[in-house]
Amino acid sequence: MQVASATQYLESPIGLLKITASQKGIASVIFQDDKTENETPSFLTNQCVIQLSEYYLGKRKKFELPLYPEGTPFQQRVWEQLLNIPYAKTISYRQLAVSLGDTKCIRAAGTANGKNPIAVIIPCHRIIGSHGELIGYAGGLARKKWLLNHEAKVNGTFAQLF
Could you confirm whether 124 is annotated as catalytic? Predict the structure, then answer.
């Protein structure tokens, strides 16, 4: 397992985020209840805090950070596809599987989506059910709902989605 060389926290509008980075890039951004370790910030974690803060203020739609999430080759493919979903847009788990070239991998794609270690930046919150329903989010459905509605509002397409 990759050892992060830097750790920093951000109190976001929807909860505490723990940001970790290696020398190669951002390794994780995860929601936590409490600070579990001392902060050892780096230039990269500080840039991540700045960009996430801008996102939450509605001033950033695209992140410009080197990402280095650890996962299987399939998980990496899924996370790369997630990065292609435009800001304030959603796709279904089925559409995600189709974008990976195999409609039969819908469950595996959903599982990989749920194991995304870089919340918000790798936008796993933009995946919804085939019938437009709000399902599945490791950070909790209330956070997913908030993120989707926030992006719609910032994008000028606000209508309470969920």
Answer: yes
